[in-house]
Amino acid sequence: MDKFISIKETSEIIGVTTTTLRRWEANEKLKSHHRTLGNHRRYKLSDILNIINKNISNDESQRKVICYSRVSTHDQKNDLIRQSNVLEKHCSENNFKNVETITDIGSGLNYKKKGLTKLLKMLINNEVDKIILTHKDRLLRFGSDLLINIAKHFNVETIILNNETKSFEEELTGDVLEIITVFSAKLYGKRSHKNKIKI
To answer: Count of domains in the chain?
Structure first.
């Protein structure tokens, strides 16, 4: 037996406001099944679920495989190109479709990098199917596990090509060097700015 639901229930299922549903009906984008004697809209539940499932299926087929590469400084551009080539080769060998490469130049401590920001927006908008990295710390020096877990929440697989486990000493050395590099760059930039003002 068919089940019919109110406009409020329909709005909660689809994730839009009741005002949007009324506008859709006026534009003949989505019509209610019928009206009650009190002139209240009623939607057929099975029709609404079919629309949602169709949209999810379309979204899944259009989601992208993201090759994400990062280096800390402009002097490492050759390594950035090498990373991208390795990731793109992996995609080609595995017949991944709809591949996009995102690159960043900046510290692994910087959460505001242009490429990383773009990747986060794509994740939230359900535009990503897989994220491929050469190393986990290419994503972030601290917090990459958090980002990978967020991706998992959106049914996004994260593939790390070189996933070797470093010793505690190696991890600590890398973290300390990253911090020193960042603060040195900030200090140098501040001094440079002061010198420009004096000149």
So the answer is: 2
